[in-house]
Design brief:
The structure is a single chain. This protein is α+β, with helices and mostly antiparallel strands. The chain contains nine helices and ten strands. The protein has a four-stranded antiparallel beta sheet, with no helix packed on it. Helix 1 runs parallel beside helix 6, helix 3 packs across helix 6 and helix 5 crosses helix 6. The longest helix is centred in the last third of the chain and has 23 residues. The radius of gyration is 20 Å and the shape is elongated. Bound molecules: zinc ion.
Length: about 270
């Protein structure tokens, strides 16, 4: 998301919004103020909070908030560039450029909110501190205060903001920690390794994304089932849940244990 934010920060300022919408009925989460209120206004760049992108209007009166969830894709189309016929959301700028949100699959999860600044603040206040740069002391306090499986806690935006399911896999692998370990049972060295792994992996991801790398090159563990672990060569294992999938190296992370059984997986949720 940070790579996307940086890529869009300049282009969205260049021209005022010519047309806001249309938006898919399931994608647009607010109706007051109406989307058209954005038209004629200039955006003041892009900010990021956790996995959400914020587009404040230059006059400070409105904030457009976007959350891509897992299947949403945001694309910048230059003037004259062909785009999808019926995107989930479209923002057209004077001069002809467009910002287009699409979402694979029938279930529409990605969201667009148009808010006044106070409402935007309320929408974001439940988010935990930004994961990047958190440091071992603050991370340790979060882990100690919430007894949960590590993969689930890392993805929880209320605990710490900015880590999705894929990066939780990458980070835990780098930290050599089991995704199923309890947050309250980590030692001091574990917490330090985890804090370092968060910064290292998110920085690595940002660098690759800025160079235009796709998922397959960016992720080394996530979505690499049965491929050799980049550290030890053991085939990567996975556990499926309804909403996400945990990928891990049994050798590096779970002392050789492979957790495949679905009932067991459910117990470990
Ligand atoms: Zn390994």
């Amino acid at each position: 998301m940070e790579a996307l934010r940086r890529a869009l920060d300049d282009p969205v300022r260049a021209f005022p919004v010519a047309k806001a919408g249309p938006a898919h009925v399931a994608t647009l989460k607010t109706y007051d103020p109406p989307l058209e209120t954005l038209e004629g206004r200039r955006l003041a760049g892009v900010r990021r909070r956790g996995k959400r992108l914020l587009f404040p209007s230059e006059d400070g009166e409105l904030v457009l908030l976007l959350h891509l969830m897992t299947a949403g894709r945001l694309r910048w189309l230059g003037a004259g560039e062909a785009g999808p016929k019926s995107p989930a959301f479209r923002l057209s700028f004077e001069g002809g450029a467009q910002l287009v949100l699409t979402e694979r699959g029938a279930r529409k999860r990605a969201g667009v909110w148009l808010l006044v600044p106070d409402a935007a603040e309320r929408e974001l206040e439940h988010l935990g501190p930004e994961a990047f740069g958190l440091g071992a002391a603050r991370l340790g306090a979060i882990l100690a205060g919430d007894s949960r499986r590590l993969h689930s806690l890392l993805r929880d935006q209320r605990a710490l903001a900015g880590i999705g399911r894929a990066w939780a896999n990458e980070i835990l692998h780098r930290a050599r920690l089991s995704p199923f370990a309890l947050s309250t049972q980590l030692g001091e060295a574990d917490v330090e390794r985890l804090a370092e792994a968060i910064d290292e992996e998110l920085a690595r991801g940002l660098e690759l994304r800025e160079r235009g790398a796709g998922d397959k090159r960016t992720y080394r563990v996530h979505d690499h089932l049965a491929e050799p672990c980049y550290v030890c060569g053991t085939p990567i294992a996975r556990v499926d849940y309804e909403e996400h999938t945990v990928y891990y190296c049994p050798e590096c992370q779970t002392e050789g244990r492979v957790l495949k059984d679905r009932r067991l997986s459910r117990l470990l949720r």
